[in-house]
Amino acid sequence: MSRMFMEEARSIEVFDECDILVVGGGAAGHSAAIAAARAGAKNIILLERYGYMGGDVTGGYVIMVPALTWRTGSFVRGLQEEWFTRMKDIPGAVLGAEKGTYGSEKKEDIEYWTPIWDAVSKCEDSTPRVVRSVYFEPNQLKIEMDKMLLEEKANIRVYCHSWASRPIVEDGAVTGIVFESKEGRKAIKAKVVIDATGDGDLYAQAGAPFAMDNDRKTRSTDTALVFRVGGVDFRKFFASANKSRETFGKLIGGLRAIVGHGMLPLPTPANDIVWFNNWISPMNCIDVKDLTYTEFLVRDKIRDVIKFMQDNAEGFENAYLYDIAPQTGVRCSRRLKGEYIMTPFDYAFHREFPDTIAWHSTICRINDSAPIEIPYRTILPQGVENLLCPGRHVSADSIAIDWMNLIPQCVGTGQAAGVAAAVAVTDGTTVRDVNIERVQDILVDQDVPLPRHPKTDPYLEDLCKEFDYGHYTKLSKMAAEDPNQFINYRQP
Ligand SMILES: Cc1cc2nc3c(=O)[nH]c(=O)nc-3n(C[C@H](O)[C@H](O)[C@H](O)COP(=O)(O)OP(=O)(O)OC[C@H]3O[C@@H](n4cnc5c(N)ncnc54)[C@H](O)[C@@H]3O)c2cc1C
Q1: Ligand 1 site-directed mutation target among 63, 131, 146, 197, most atoms within 8 Å of CB
Q2: How far is ligand 1, taken at its centre, from the CA of residue 24, in Å?
Q3: Cα angle for residues 395, 400, 405 (degrees, 5° grid)
Q4: Which of 149, 160, 332, 380 has the fewest CB atoms inside 10 Å of its own CB, making it the most exposed?
């Protein structure tokens, strides 16, 4: 039975006004606000429903940032590298291969980094190499993200515990939002709004086209509730569990039998703490019932998981529950159908764009994880003005989203959104008509390498050319020869 309640119309207070309003303080939104301030914007608001920044990365305990490098080149830089540079001297905060080691094919380096998931390249068509994939302590990052905002407090006002409930749309342009808090329902007006909610909460209601399907082609639409287990010797566990495929398969199969879904014990920066990542599907990541189900399902099984590991896994004899992530892990729900939609072909052919805002090495095996270009149009919605949409709800098809919603791409598109909003406000243009060359110049000044840009280290472009943009793999050849078979390919 469908029951409806007619909500009455009412006037609400305009709580604040600004030039740039960023909604959502995750990897994308936090980066957007910081980048906008550093690009000269003076009147920015960052609105967040929880009491801390980071979203999935700090609250969801997603503690690994993969593929910052390709071969010996450091491609993913900007604010993403800054997180780790800032925390590198804090004991236990960061673990990742440094310059001089990433790109290495030496046996001893490969052996040392192999237990650290995704720290060694996995392409079948080339020799394994060390990759800079960084593991971090989420609570240290929480503190660091605050510090970055405090440094910009003259230009950024942060409102936590404030949930944006709808965009204000006038003549096809977003001019603000309505939000809910303990103080009630209020509005904020803005010249540019950045939807960094991760779930397209604003662009969906503003009328921008988007996709929302859970075809289970990738891991993207799975939910999770991550937890950590202490008292472990991870390297001992890894050596023993990986003695043979059979031993590892038995262990993972045993875990699946207990919990009923995929679960993997993964490293953290500390050898005595293990990160239990999990994949629960098929789930709808914006469905209240599915989110609630995820929380209860995982918590209900944690004690059984620890007991199983104590009994069956070397290194887990003294294991205990260390902590549970404060929020449900949401990988992907809505995907923008923006002015450009990323597909696996962008990875297979190294497409060049005039409006490239990020040039990122990724975990995609089609091109051996070589850098791909991400155009500005992936964060630009169709048919709605004054709105940018960086982060995990970016414009990508149901396969490419698996590589586009990773943390570096969320930070990268967020940083670009912030700079673009700042340039639009300063120049008095719209974000659709923004001077993209100026955006690119500022991004490069903010330590974001971009291809064909005179200030980008030429070493990076030379490296790509020398190794043919990673396009010597069987998969990239398949893309060229048999596009139909290729489009159905799923990365394992
Ligand atoms: C379990 C799990 C494992 C993963 N593993 C990896 C991995 O190993 N490596 C990797 O790179 N990526 C991984 N990912 C993906 C990656 O973590 C996320 O895609 C990325 O962090 C998303 O960043 P975001 O800023 O776009 O979105 P989010 O982190 O979701 O941030 C959105 C922010 O907006 C806030 N918000 C949402 N709606 C509103 C609203 N209406 N009003 C106000 N605030 C709002 C949220 O509270 C949040 O702070 C994983 C994800 C999960 C869930």
Answers
A1: 197
A2: 9
A3: 65
A4: 160
